[in-house]
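Holo prediction — PRP.
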Amino acid sequence: MTSFAKTSRAAEILVSREQIAETVERMAHQIQEDYPAEMPLLVGVLKGSFIFLADLVRKMQRPVEIDFLRVSSYGSGVKSSGSVGLRMGVTSLVRGRDVLMVDDIVDTGLTTSYAVKYLRRKGASSVKLCTLLDKPSRRQMPVVPDYMGFTVPDQFIVGYGLDFDEQYRHLPDIHVLAGGVDES
Ligand code: PRP
């Protein structure tokens, strides 16, 4: 039997589970402080955000409502084509509400830009972005996260929700993918 460990390309740990836990808690506290009256609707961007969002809400001491959306890229499997579309929208009423988008990583910024426009079109009073990871070196759109955990270098990373070919999302730490991938 070939073990996962033997075949895994998840190499060195870039961000450990301990660093993640500490940062997620800090971010949850900050968000609660910034919305003293009413918590925003948290909208997780699928699929990558699912673990971060789950940990984030469990560090909040106030009731919070969540929803999800999914944005897809077309073309090469990475977003170099610059073309994104909505694959799944929210079901909550967004009109007149403060929305906080939650994502695992901002890379080119195309996903965020598209999702912000979508949520504004649905009538959100405000749309902010909370991302665990930021890779500003690859930005194509002028996206600046309102809440951000870690700035990461231009390496292909996996774990804690981030995948390579749908693998490795389950890993508790964030790893560099050995060998990298061609994202051009
Ligand atoms: C990843 C990640 C972000 C997006 C960021 O999602 O979860 O949503 O890419 O990239 P961008 O800033 O270049 O748009 P992906 O489209 O890979 O789908 P997934 O979340 O289902 O893995």
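READOUT: The pocket of PRP is lined by residues 45-48, 73, 79, 103-112, 163 (CB under 6 Å).
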